[in-house]
Design goal:
Elements: H1 2-18, H2 20-34, H3 43-63, H4 68-93, H5 95-98, H6 100-105, H7 111-138, H8 150-174, H9 177-192, H10 208-211, H11 214-226, H12 233-257
Length: 265
């Protein structure tokens, strides 16, 4: 029975991939609809995030007595990546509920909705890239071969976010209070993760706060290649482990609940 469920979920993922044009169109249209009739469209995200990161970088560099040229790139990259990851979790939480009409009235593979929300978040993430590029140019961060590690790091960050987002989506569809719990958790996580602050400022006895935080390693493998810092080998191992666990939980959730979730809506 379980093997049959997993086989059907695998088929669902493959069938959904064959409808990539529909998923891509929906994802792009979601972005267009979200910013319809606005002057700057999704670039409002860039404007707001750029101003916020610039102000916070100025304040934090003064408080921590560090050079703006070193504090700003780290903060900018870390915050953009956190916004992206948090968006994958937030929108994943609404994955089932927001697609209620299509789930109940069409026979599309459930994975189409997963691909749709992944495309949507990818497109929005692309709008943030000018901030990262601009900060790197202003702070004169040189490019090197290790900068290319950004791409596999970003892929691992995305896969972990999607895997967790899918499982959270089914959980929220069944227990609506889980949505509020997620919102509270996402407010606390940035404070416990070396995004605004640098783990090098922690005394050795307190660095376990960063080391035991899985999100620290996910952010590190994407951010550090961009700002010219070496990525520690164990961060890659931790990140790969997180991805495997996240995708495993997401796949099991898809297998068990993709049909059952109709009765929760």
């Amino acid at each position: 029975m379980k093997a049959s469920l997993f086989a059907r979920s695998t088929k669902d993922l493959l069938d959904g991939a064959k409808r990539w044009e529909l998923a891509s169109f929906w994802g792009m249209d979601d972005v267009r609809q979200r910013y319809a009739r606005t002057l700057f469209g999704p670039f409002w995200l860039v404007i707001v995030a750029g101003v916020w990161i610039g102000c916070l970088g100025f304040v934090m560099s003064a408080l921590l007595r560090s050079e703006m040229s070193s504090a700003l790139p780290r903060l900018a990259c870390g915050m953009i990546l956190w916004i992206y990851f948090a968006s994958l979790l937030n929108e994943g939480a609404d994955l089932v509920v927001s697609n209620q009409f299509n789930i109940q009235n069409t026979s599309l593979p459930f994975s189409v909705y997963i691909y749709r929300y992944t495309v949507r978040n990818f497109v929005i993430f692309l709008h943030y890239l000018p901030i990262i590029v601009g900060v790197m140019l202003v702070c004169r961060i040189p490019l090197s071969a290790s900068t290319l590690l950004f791409f596999p790091g970003w892929a691992l960050l995305t896969l972990s976010g999607v895997g967790l987002g899918v499982s959270i989506g089914f959980l929220v569809a069944r227990y609506r209070d889980a949505r509020q719990m997620l919102a509270a958790l996402l407010q606390v996580l940035p404070l416990l993760t070396p995004i605004i602050w640098d783990d090098h400022f922690l005394p050795p006895a307190k660095r376990w706060v960063a080391e035991l935080n899985p999100l620290s390693h996910l952010i590190s493998i994407v951010r550090d290649p961009l700002i010219g810092r070496p990525v520690e080998g164990h961060s890659w191992l931790v990140a790969i482990g997180i991805v495997l666990v996240s995708l495993g939980i997401g796949f099991v959730s898809l297998s068990l609940y993709r049909k059952r979730c109709t009765f929760w809506l």
